[in-house]
User: What shape does this take?
Amino acid sequence: MTPESEWLAANRESYRGQWVALDGGTLLASGANARQVFAEVAGHQPLPLVVFVPPAETEMLRGKEKRNDLRIREGRVLPGD
Assistant: This one.
């Protein structure tokens, strides 16, 4: 497991619905807006990993509970059933 993966596993709940920029296991920036996070780490070397931490595992969507899973089919990412 990479340091970034370990950080995400340990801190995911605190950053749900936000973008995070990581250098190894160190958080460099976080926020609800990707542009803001990228701007905060512009020029940082090495380039950090910037990822979106999805909201809760399940969310209400059009009155129905739907898992936030993704599947890959024929090279395309599709929402889970």
